[in-house]
Amino acid sequence: MKCHSRNLLTLLLLTVFLLTPTTFAAAKKLIPMGESIGIQLELPFVYVAHDVLLPNGQWLKKGDIITEVNSEPINSVEKVEQNLSGNQLTFTIEQKSQPREIKLTNEQANNILPFLKDETDGIGTLTFIDPESNQYGALGHQIVDGVLNEPPEFTTGSIFLASIEQIKKSTPGQPGYKISVIDKDNIRLGNVKSNELYGIFGNWETNISESLREPIDIMQEDEMKLGKAELFTAIEGSEVEAFEIELTKIEENFLQFVVTDKELLEKTGGILQGMSGSPIIQNGKFVGAVTHMFVEQPSKGAAISVTEMLKKSPN
């Protein structure tokens, strides 16, 4: 999708939910979701999350990879801790693909542990579950680690139910956002099999029958009409609510809409960062998902049709 308006901010890209070319292509009904989820990707390496000035004047720079401690290969923070024995330790660091060594005392090494990470985590929106394949699509964009500035290689991934604790309202020129925390029960909803350009997706592991929503038909593009529709999303706790919107423009596979729901406008100012992927329903059928907001007019948003999403396939 090309955005020619300088005021159009991409919150998330497009949500695409194909694990293989046929996984969702034949889907006729999907369960619209809208829950806020926590996402955790476990990495096969350890990196430095913040710049750290060492006592000898050297720096550990944000994004440095720790590859060895005392010549022992390292692939987790736990492995680093296991190798902190002896008074003098040698850390092998890869900085911009160039290896170097630093010497640390045991105390100094323990002091840097809080700055080391071996996972990427964040909050996203669950878009739908395919009841036939038990697979889900979520988030609507590729996860890019904020420190590494690239999609991280990961070994395993999980999604968890998250609760909205606070909302930072959108105002013209200032996009708002959701502040979420992982649900206290910490129950894994599913795995993450792939982190692609168009979203994360994987296998749903909990009982689909527990969903409050039933599978609904996918709306074909020639059925879409200007006018009233609903947006499913969570703005308080973990409860998904339906909010009124109005479709104002339909152009092939892409839609524009305005939020007309007074409650949503009062609480959020319109569209928030983190709402992308929220399902849009019209006349009881799955139309598509939110993809963008207009920065200067946060009550306005853009979406993609679900039929177009189902044509896409991650490489």
Automatic annotation (TrEMBL):
Signal peptide span: 1-25
Residues covered by the Peptidase S55 domain: 93-315
PROSITE patterns named in the record: SPOIVB
Keywords (A to Z) from UniProt: Signal
Gene3D superfamilies registered for this protein in UniProt: 2.30.42.10
Protein name: Peptidase
UniProt source species: Lysinibacillus composti
